[in-house]
Design a protein that fits this description.
Layout lengths: L2 H15 L4 H14 L1 H11 L10 H4 L4
C-alpha cells in the first residue's frame, strides 16, 4: 500500500472503532499489533489510546524511538 492508502486505512478503522466499546477497541488493537507493530500503534494513536512502551516487546520499542 502507498503511504496515502495506509493513512486512509488507519483513518477509516479508527473512525469506525471510535464508536465501539473500549474493550472491543483494545481487543482489535491487539490484533493489529500482532499483524504489524506500526499498524497497531497508528490505530491506537487514531483512537487516542496511549500504549505504554513497557507493554510492547523489546523489538517494538525501538520503532517508537
Amino acid at each position: 500500500m502507498t503511504p496515502d492508502q495506509q493513512d486512509r486505512l488507519i483513518q477509516n478503522i479508527a473512525g469506525s472503532l471510535s464508536q465501539a466499546r473500549r474493550d472491543i477497541q483494545m481487543r482489535q488493537i491487539c490484533h493489529f499489533f500482532r499483524a504489524d507493530i506500526n499498524y497497531g500503534r497508528r490505530v491506537a494513536e487514531g483512537l487516542g489510546i496511549e500504549i505504554d512502551a513497557s507493554m510492547m516487546p523489546a523489538s517494538a520499542q525501538t520503532v517508537n524511538a
